[in-house]
Amino acid sequence: MGTVAAVTNEEIYENLAGLPVFSPVMKRLGKLQADPNSTHRDFAELIRTDVGLTVALLKLANSAYFGLRRAVGTVEQAVSLLGRQKMTEVVITASFARVIPSEIPGYGIRAEEFWRHNVATAVIATALAAHVGREAPDIFTAALLHDCGKLLIGPMLEARLDAAGAPQGEASYCVERDLLGMDHGLVGAVLARKWRLPYATRWATRWHHDPTSAPWFTDPGLVGIVHIAAAVAHQRGYGETDDPGDCLYIPGVAEGLGIGAADIEEVCAACSETIESLVGAYQAPA
Ligand SMILES: [Fe+2]
Ligand SMILES: [Fe+2]
Fold first, then answer.
1. Which ligand does the CA of 125 lie closest to?
2. Where are the alpha helices (DSSP H) in the chain?
């Protein structure tokens, strides 16, 4: 490998500025969620200000994952049937789908494959948390966005890979640390903050490849479940990979959470239909 320069803060901010806006409604959505006097109508009116989001949201709300008994045709119906927490999940999911480029630079991952992996991680993590009786209301979005840092670090990684050559047989987060001085977890946390995503998302993104280093205030249990779910998703073919780090999780993390191989098997068997329904709800950005 040739010599390459580590990433500077200026380079990160330059690339950050080049990314699409996550969702113009996120700031107001956070305020509405925190306001006990806000109504379903307030939520619906906010979402309707973004036509693309409205269309994507209705498609997702009708997918099997969100479990509505009847088809919804309007944002008002979706808000009242889903409730605030699920509504936020749907908005974040729909917004995320819109910022994924057709291919992730530096990794060569196609948008559909990236989506499939992230959706599967989100569904498996949510089901694993429920299976072991953990209260983790934001785990779906935390797991969905766990690899969002790849969108920011990708162009910087690609430039260095062009200069240094691609190392063989190394986990991508180790290559990132070698070439850039940081990994997609760290820059993902920066991105999640800029996108005003819940704290759980910032923590899971930051520590998903290094859960035993997650500080106490980050809910290490949630981070650990996302770590396991991401690896299990790859193991089950949700996200093709030849990256040796992708399919591995730390056995002690699973043991500490009371998650055994039989639990993973049971959860994955129950999740396949909902994963496919969300995979099918993906719409490439216009
Ligand atoms: Fe990752
Ligand atoms: Fe991942």
1. 2
2. 9-18, 26-34, 40-48, 51-61, 75-99, 111-131, 139-144, 149-164, 172-180, 184-194, 199-207, 220-235, 251-256, 261-280
